[in-house]
Design brief:
The complex is a heterodimer of chains A (about 110) and B (about 110). Chain A is an all-beta fold and about 110 residues long. Chain A has strands at about 5, 10-15, 20-25, 30-35, 45-50, 55, 65, 75-80, 85-95, 105, 110-114. Helix content of chain A is about 0%, strand content about 50%. In chain A, the strands form 2 sheets. In chain A, strands 2, 4, 5, 6, 9, 10 and 11 form a 7-stranded mixed β-sheet that branches. A 4-stranded antiparallel β-sheet of chain A has the order 1-3-8-7, with no helix packed on it. In chain A, strand 5 (about 45-50) and strand 6 form a beta hairpin. By secondary structure, chain B is an all-beta fold. Chain B is globular and about 45 Å long. Chain B has strands at about 5, 10-15, 20, 25, 30-40, 45-50, 55-60, 60-65, 75, 85-95, 100, 105-110. Classes of the chains: A mainly beta (about 110), B mainly beta (about 110).
């Protein structure tokens, strides 16, 4: 089955610790995205990548980092600089060519601070 | 800048009632418009979309028409079921790189 997988489902972070959230897709999509969702709010874009080895900051990139070494994978690291990391993190992907690039979402990772 | 405004929830309905969720937008150019649904603890699922003015998107009994004159994309369903209880997000896409702008979401609760 084609789709987007995110792991883990729940992740706990200690103060001062960096943690990495995994996102993998087998849809052969060029573009991938990371969003943050807080209770009662819409999604906010953290980072996005249109092609391998290239990525751009979204609206709330501070305290986060990403890499795009493979087309299928777009891991997100939440660094110790992110002071309020507790949220639901969603990864998405879309085809890269022109047109209405529908984004398809993974099941999400919930990050909690200990 | 681009923005999406949705009606606040929660919207509470009885089964078989008519559902409308209002969505209006502000955007430069000619955006594509989307409705996504999120069930508790899950990611977002695409519900329907429209890419140009007067297009009607439909899926699973839900419909929305892209109204450029009123900059709206209201979601409707004629007869809701308990299984339609979820949070619904309206979103627009204007950027050529596929950056979505989301509304805050509207929670819908359907009671038997």
């Amino acid at each position: 089955d084609g789709g987007i997988t995110q792991s883990p489902k729940y992740l706990f972070r200690k103060e001062g610790q960096n943690v990495t959230l995994s996102c993998e897709q087998n849809l052969n999509h060029d573009a991938m995205y990371w969003y943050r969702q807080d209770p009662g709010q819409g999604l906010r874009l953290i980072y996005y990548s249109q092609i391998v080895n290239d990525f751009q900051k979204g609206d709330i990139a501070e305290g986060y980092s990403v890499s795009r070494e493979k087309k299928e994978s777009f891991p997100l690291t939440v660094t110790s600089a992110q002071k309020n990391p507790t949220a639901f993190y969603l990864c998405a992907s879309s085809i890269g060519n022109a047109g209405a690039k529908t984004q398809y979402f993974g099941p999400g990772t919930r990050l909690l601070v200990l | 800048g681009n923005s999406v405004t949705q009606m606040e929830g929660p919207v509470t309905l009885s089964e078989e009632a008519f559902l409308t969720i209002n969505c209006t937008y502000t955007a430069t150019g000619y955006p594509s418009l989307f409705w996504y649904v999120q069930y508790p603890g899950e990611g977002l699922q695409l519900l329907l979309k429209a890419t140009k003015a007067d297009d009607k998107g439909s899926n699973k009994g839900f419909e929305a028409t892209y109204r450029k004159e009123t900059t709206s994309f209201h979601l409707e369903k004629g007869s809701v079921q308990v299984s339609d209880s979820a949070v619904y997000f309206c979103a627009l896409l204007t950027d050529s790189w596929g950056k979505l702008q989301f509304g805050a979401g509207t929670q819908v609760v359907v009671t038997p």
